[in-house]
Amino acid sequence: MTSLKSPKATNVGAAEKRWIGAVVVLSVLMYIPTFRLLWGKWMHDTQYSLAFLVPFVCGYFVWRKWPDVKTLQRSPTPWGLAVISFAILLHLLGVVLGVSGPSELSIIVLIVGGCLYFHGRQLVRVLAFPLAYLLFMIPVPGGILDRLGFPMQIFASAATASLLRLTGIEVVRAGIQLSVEGFSFEVAQACSGMSSLVALVGVTAVFAYITKLPVKLKWTLFALALPIALAANIVRITSIALVGYHWDWDIALKIYHDFSSPLLFLSAILLLFFIDWGFEWLSAGRTTSRSS
Q: pTM of the entire structure?
């Protein structure tokens, strides 16, 4: 029977491969209810409409890093077993208490623990981005989103009212509710930027990772996902109000409302490309000035 002692820093033998395979199979079976819960949230929550792509994105970056992985010397650490144990406890805690979050998060903790125990710290360092990117498949607890979403609703409604007044349209605002010439509508949480924020942050993370920018500018580009999402949604809400004011409110809220969402998201992505180009230009200018 295979013991749970830390394996030696050698190539993976046949017995150890069987042991790893058994652990993977048991882990998948243990997490089947969690996978079903995640799939349901991905399919029905617009904030995580792109979450089902996360495993494929992570797999792609693991594939890209595979030549580096094959050159690593195995140096397993027994601390990995502690991380695996913590992941199992976290999973059981979520299942027993019926709380959303701990079980989903424990999937990532378990994978990290497996990398440490069966290979070593270097593997975690090399695969740091795909491992961290798995967080984008985990839904954020609703209470946190509510606390973040309401201030964003207030800000979006206030900014929309200001933009409409600049165009000469009289607007009455009461919290998140806007009234334009007697027609009232409210800025829902989905329209405040929260729905596009999660997806845009995930796209921005990949975009910043693959750029050739210095590390500081990569993080700056990633941090810009929040203001870009807010600005894009404010423009979207304002354009919906303008369509309703100048043409028809039914067209604005039933047709243009849905049609404008992918267009604004695409505009936000194009803005990221433009900002990245500006950062590359600044970075190249600094490099040239230093070399001269």
A: 0.75
